[in-house]
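DM from R.C. (forwarded with permission)

"hey, sorry to bug you on a friday — could you get me a structure for this? deadline for the figure draft is monday and I only need the backbone to look sensible"
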Amino acid sequence: MSADVLAQETPRRERRPVLFVVVAALFAVAAVVAVVVGRGSTSAVPLAPDNPEPAGAQAAATILREQGVRIRTVSTTDDAVRVAGPGTTLLVTVTGRLDDDQLAAVRDTGADLVLGQPTFLPDLEPLTDRVEPSPAGSDEPVPAACADPDATAAGTLSRSVGGVVPLSEDVELCFPTADGAGALATWEQDGRDVALLADTTLMSNEHLADAGNAALVLRLLGANEELVWYLPTIGDTVGDDDGSTAALVPPTVRALGVQLLVLAVVVVLWGGRRLGRVVTEPMPVVVRSAETTLGRGRLYRRARDHAHAAAGLRAGCATRMATRLGVPPSARAEVLVAAVARATGREEAAVGTLLYGPPPTSDAELTGLTRELDTLESEVHPS
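My reply, with the result:
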C-alpha cells in the first residue's frame, strides 16, 4: 500500500470514534426525551400535586385539571405572592411552617385562602384572629353539622387529625370533632373566602376517596379557575428570592435538563480518557460542606435579623423534641411545653419562655438562646 493511500485512511480511522460518540449521544438524547415526555415528572413531597405516592395529592390535582382548574405549584412565599391574587385560590398545605411575615404576605395576596395544618403555632396572627388551632381531632367519621354548602355537599369526613376553634361569631364551624372544635372553619375576610382545614391529609391519594373527603377538597380548591398550590419549605423566608422564575419552569423541562447534563458529563469523561491519566493537584482553598448554612447565618447577622434567626432555631428545636417525645404535629404549643417539662424536669413557664418567648435583640442574646435551646434539646435527647 502506497504512502498516499495510508495518508487517506488514517484520518478516516481517527474520525470513526468521534462519529460514534455523536451518534450515541443523539440516540441517548432521543431516548431521554421519549422517556421524560411519555412518563412525566413526579416528586416525593407530601401533598404535592405531582406525587403519586399515598402521601401525595396527584389524584386531587388530576381531577381539578380535568374540571378546568389551572394549577401553579410554588415552594416559596415570594413565588406565592407573585402568582396569587384576587380571583385565584391560594392553598397553603402546611401553615405551621410560616412565620409572622410570611403569614402577613399570604393574607395580603387578596386571593381566596385554603389553609391547613398550623403545626405548633400558638395562634395564627397576623393572618387572622378569628380562629385558633386545636389538638381536638377525631378518628371516627364526622358529619358536617353546619350550613356551609361545601361541607353539606361532602356530608361526612372520614376523620380529622386536629381541629379548629372559632373566636368570632362570623366563623362557620363544620364537622365538629369535640366541644367547641371542628375539622373545618370558613369565613369571609376582606372580601374573599377563607377556609381552614385542620387535616390536609384528607386531600392525599390515600384518603381522598374516603367518605366525603373528595367532595369537600374539590369544592374548596376548585372554586376559582386558577389554583396556586403552595408547598412551604423549611428555611423559606420573605424577600430572600432573587426574583427569578425558575420555580415556574415546568418539571418536565427541569428533568430533561438534568438528563442532558448527565449525558454531557459522561461524554466528556469518555473523551477525557484519551488525554491520559487524570492529574491531581492540591486545591487552593477548602470549601466546607456547611458553607450554605454559614452563608445564611452571615446574612442574618449582617441584617441584624435576630428575631428571624431565633424563630428558625426555636422551630427546629421544637420539631425535633416533638418527634422524640411522640407529640403529634397538630398539637398546640401548650401540649409540647408540658411534654418537654415532664421529660426534663423543668418548669413549664421556663420551657414556654425558651421556646415561644420574646425574640432576642442582640448577638449576645441570640448566642445565649442558642446555648439554652441546645441544652434543653440535649436533656430530651440524652446521649
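R.C.: lifesaver. The chain is about 45% helix and 15% strand.
me: no worries. The first strand starts at residue 70 and ends at 74.
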